[in-house]
Amino acid sequence: MKKWFVFGALAMVLVLSSCGNDSGEAGKEGNAAKTVDSPKVVVEKFFAAVAEFDFDKAATYTLPEGKINKDIVKMKEGFKDAPQKDKDMLSKMMKESKIISEKVDGDKATVDYENEGKGKRYFKLELKDGEWKIADEAAHPDEKLAELEPAAETAAEAIKAVDEAAAAAKKAADEAAAAIKKAADAAK
Q: Is the whole-model pTM more than 0.85?
């Protein structure tokens, strides 16, 4: 009987010690390992909160001094009395937003995402007090390039037209100079 008691106690110690955190301080109050959400997870939670119109919760994923936080405050006020179709559109857009990539560089990160309403965009995040917070949002560089393509094509066409006009003017000037020389030679 004593053997079973010792064996049971040993088994219990092994089970309890495997439930602790990585620092070897299992069982001490307040020493549970805190899991930090990745920037990608923070953005996903942000989208989910906005989709549910829980703007207060969405604000917890942003830097208080950041542009996105200010936008969330405006959205909270703006969607208070918004028509249901506008609310449905925002909720759908948030739910259908897709994370494309995540890049972490020290205490800064970017999360690229795409949605039907805005195209490719990205969030800038900062690590503050051990938590990733959304600071800002911007158009994805690929989208900016795509926006510039029509202007670049128009500029290229204009340059080509100017080059053609300059070539034609040079040809006309050369022909005029040749005609003047011919007339001068004939007058001698």
A: no
